[in-house]
Amino acid sequence: MTRPSGGAGGFTYAASGVDIDAGERAVTLMRTAVERTRRPEVVGGLGGFAGLFALDTSRYRRPLLASSTDGVGTKIALARQLDRHDTVGVDLVAMVVDDLVACGAEPLFLQDYVACGKVVPERVAAIVTGIAAGCEQAGAALVGGETAEHGDLMDADEYDLAATAVGVVEADAVLGPERVREGDAVVAMASSGFHSNGYSLVRRVVAAAGLDLAATPSELDRPLGDVLLEPTRVYALDCLALVAELGVDGVHAFAHITGGGLAGNTARVVPEGLEAVLDRGTWALPAAVHLLEAHGVPRAESERAFNCGVGMVAVVAAADADRAVGLLTARGVPAWVAGTVGTGTGARLVGSYR
Fold first, then answer.
1. What is the mean pLDDT of residues 143-160?
2. Under CATH, which number does the domain 16-44+60-170 receive?
3. If we measure between CA atoms, which residue out of 318, 300, 306 comes closest to residue 262?
4. How far apart are CA 296 and CA 30, in angstroms?
5. Which of 13, 104, 153, 165 is 20 to 30 A removed from 68 (C-alpha atoms)?
6. What is the Cα–Cα distance from 235 to 334, expressed in whole angstroms?
7. Where is the PurM-like C-terminal domain (predicted)?
8. Residue 47: which residues within 8 A CB-CB, separation 6 or more?
9. What is the DSSP secondary-structure string of 110-162?
10. How many angstroms separate the CA atoms of 350 and 266, rounded?
11. Residue 115 pLDDT greater than 50, yes or no
């Protein structure tokens, strides 16, 4: 009887598409970046089967744990196309922690999942270094993760990212539509770019129009690829600072502006019977959005698929609006009063962009 052979040395895991040595080298390369995210509550280090976090419940009256899971989406395809992998990790963290802080929760720790066709240690380390950088910006510990090599499912240069973060908020300090009142002001916080939404549309327009990612269109001040890979702004600590300064009597809700656009996401924090009216005339539409519109994206579609320059909004008491803008601006987040809450339903945009 003939015995199946995997080659001269028999069957091996590496020959089947999983290189354990490469995975271990990737961990070595990322270790320093991950360790920079450590918080005092973290127990142990890299290498365990689970991440341990000692939550000091004595600091809270009635703590609620909050969790959020998300990914980066097809922005990764651009990172692969440009062979630049050190920014999408920041996008991953921002998508998760900026959802967490929307209810007022402080991000505590995060775990990531990297699935790839082939573990290239330097590439995986670049990705996770970006994740660690995002965690530092959010004040969250990166307590562990998983890198999975799926050679039978993905091409060698393919990868996908996901993460889950856990945060904590006092039960009597949860933010949301229940706190929003008629007369509240809507404070807009500038986005850093497209963030991590709408990239299926972005990539389709770029391909159809034959736009060169390495070139600088007349509408922009740097190469298109740089603009499109600009990492998502991490708002978590800025939002928490706003709550610490104004309290929950001043800050009533946050809305993270992701898929669905500014009106769609702001509507999620407006209670029944009220409406947030946002004035386009309080800010300028980003040049990159104008560029895509010039190549066929209708304005209505831009406002549904993209953040159009606003990555987060805070609904605050009208008397605290100027203080909120001043605090955010001092922290390096461009902010302005973009609208008000009145009677009606949901949220809508009015006027024309500057």
1. 91
2. 3.30.1330.10
3. 306
4. 42
5. 153
6. 11
7. 181-348
8. 27
9. EEEEEEESS--HHHHHHHHHHHHHHHHHHT-EEEEEEEEE-TTTS-TT-EEEE
10. 14
11. yes
Token pair in block for residue 201? 């549309």
Q: Please, which pLDDT band fits residue 5 given cuts at 50, 70 and 90? A: very low
| Record: fold of 177-350 | Phosphoribosyl-aminoimidazole Synthetase; Chain A, domain 2 (3.90.650)
Is 83 or 16 the better-scoring residue by pLDDT?
83
Residues in the chain: 354
The yes-or-no verdict on residue 309 having pLDDT over 80 is yes
> Of 249, 329, 311, 313, which is closest to residue 276 (Cα–Cα)?
313
What is the token pair recorded at 19?
A: 């290189």
CA 254 remoteness from chain centre? 15
Among 269, 305, 340, 248, which Cα is nearest to 102's? 269
> Is 99 within 8 Å of 206 (Cβ atoms)?
no
| Maximum Cα–Cα distance across the chain | 86
Provide CATH 3.30.1330.10 ranges for the chain: 16-44+60-170
Contacts of 60 (CB under 8 A, 6+ apart): 168, 170
Cβ contact 172:61 at 8 Å: yes
Spatial CA neighbour of 137 closest among 333, 327, 334 = 333
Alpha-carbon 250 to chain mean position: 25
Mean pLDDT of 112-139: 94
Pairing status of strand 141-149 against strand 106-116:
parallel
- What is the phi/psi pair of residue 99, to 5°? -75, -40
Q: In percent, how much of the chain has pLDDT > 90?
A: 81
Q: Please spell the DSSP secondary structure of 46-90, one letter per residue.
A: TTSSS-EE---GGG-SSEEEEEEEEE-TTHHHHHHHHT--SSHHH
Q: What is the mean pLDDT of the chain?
A: 92
Which contiguous run of DSSP H or E holds residue 264?
Answer: helix 261-266
Distance CA 264, CA 257 (A): 8
Residues carrying CATH 3.90.650.10, the chain: 177-350
The pTM is what? 0.91
Angle between helical axes of 236-250 and 321-330 (0-180°, round to 10): 160
